[in-house]
Amino acid sequence: MVDDREYLRLEKERDLYLGLLRLNAESNPEPFLETALALIVETSGAQQGYLEVFNQDGGEARWWRAAGCSEEDVEHIRRLVSRGIIAEAVASGEVVMTPSALLDPRFKERASVQRSKIDAVLCAPIGADTPLGVLYLLRQDRPGVFDSDELARAKLFTRHLAPLVEKLFTELGRSEDDPTRPFRAQISANSVVGKSRAVAALLEEVAALAKLDVGVLIMGETGTGKTQIGRVIHENSSRSAYPLVEVNCAAIPEQLLESELFGAMPGSHATAVKRREGKVAAAQGGTLVLDEIGELALGSQAKLLQLLQDKEYFPLGAARSVSANVRVIATTNVDLKQAVADGTFRKDLYYRLQIVSFRVPSIRERPEDLPLLAAHFCERAQQNHGFSGLTLSPGAVRALTSAEWPGNIRELSHTIEAAAIRAASRGLHQIDAEHLFPETAHGAPEAQSLTFQEETRRFQAELVRRALDATEWNVSATARQLDLTRAHLYNLIKTFGISRR
User: Fold this and answer.
1) Exposure class string for 350-365: b at 16+ Cβ within 10 A, else e
2) Which terminus in the chain has less CB density within 10 A, N or C?
3) How many angstroms separate the CA atoms of 93 and 494, rounded?
4) How far, in Å, CA of 328 to CA of 309, rounded?
5) pLDDT tens across 313-364, in order?
6) Residue 270 contacts residue 230 (beta carbons within 8 Å)
7) What angle (nearest 5°) sits at the alpha carbon of residue 327, between those of residues 326 and 328?
């Protein structure tokens, strides 16, 4: 026979499951949070409750609700979201409880704890890997920690709440404005992955000039995808039916560059036994992309200037000029203005190129796009190598977002491709952080000479640890000090395994 206490426990558990089923039908965040918080407060034996869902790309509160709390209580609890017990729960991904914050050595010295006379507290992250939010329950009516049944219900609640919150984010994401959407409607740019404002600004530039038959200078750091943007411009131009020809100015020896670009007549040099067509002629009617134009020798720059100004060029050894019907798109990771000052780049060519110019953002300027880029490159690696079923684990995504990418998208792509090969060769279906960064994996032998990546990660870990200690683990203050979002800081804490001393 079931006794009264067991019956009450089963009744509360039933109510919790029924409430979670009702939550699954909600698509509006406000009633979703109201119902969720009322449900857990009622079934957990708490007097006060606070539920917060983080902004996915910023880490600050996106939505929150409080129950049984005065305005002063809410203000105090919201301050705690970034420090102490709540920071510990979110950083560790584990439930944190204390029978009495007033007596707990971790919290008793805090003035806010003394003023509010906080006793039994239960704090649980929503989603253990990358926290989506936090549940904070407080009881002051009787001493002692929340009992095992109440703890089990809180864990059950947050475990089932996490996918519901993710579903809510997904549904809202479909209806909310994507800043790139207006420009994607104007041009075809499926190869440009990202929804950040930086990508939206880039696509706005591309959409504005793709139809214009003018030369373009694309600037940006190494590996940001400048040549890819050149292809997008060509594909959306009136020349898209004609050839797109790419020339890497840095990869061709200076003595061969002129003949590569403009072609050569028979007898113009030792190996020219017949007329050779150059890249300009191959791109006739279409687009010529000159990658890393800052690497051109001064002599070749003069020839290129003539092509841009007069739409004519002389093949090597030719007595007559040839008409050119090409659009020239140049890319560079060099500061051409400084190169002009240094005398390594022609001023007249620089002014001719920069009439229409823009810059491709680095990964640092679009960190919110990194998970999308990672998923894209994971899928591409599988297509290239015949794999299937590979995904990136939450820990792998955290490791990617906390790493430095001096080589930008190119480095990210190569890292994920290598990780996919490592994981697939072991018969795994998930890429973990150890596959991305094997040199820093637990148990890996110490490298004799640390890579730039490893040195950077170690520096980051120590910097974050010192900053947290200096602010007594006030996560918001530390994030402001380091110029990071709170979500990014939590990811760093988890990735580097930093714990409070």
Assistant:
1) bebbeeebbbbbbbeb
2) N
3) 8
4) 11
5) 888 777 788 889 999 999 999 999 999 999 999 999 999 998 899 999 999 8
6) no
7) 110
